[in-house]
Amino acid sequence: MANIAFIGLGNMGGYMSANLVKAQHKVRGFDLVADLRAAAEREGVEIAASARDAVKDAEVVITMLPQGQHVLSVWRDIIEAVPAGALMIDCSTIDVASAREAHGIAAARGLDVVDAPVSGGTAGAKAATLTLMVGGTEQAVSRARPILEKVGSKVVHCGGAGLGQAAKICNNMMAGINMVAASEGFALAERLGLSAQALFDVVSTSSGQSTAVTGFCPVPGLVERSVSNNDYKPGFALALMLKDLKLAQSAAASVGATSPLGALAVQLYALHALAGQDGKDFSHIYTMIRGAGK
Ligand code: NAD
Question: Which of 17, 157, 169, 195 has the greatest number of CB atoms lying within 10 Å of its CB?
Answer without folding.
Answer: 17
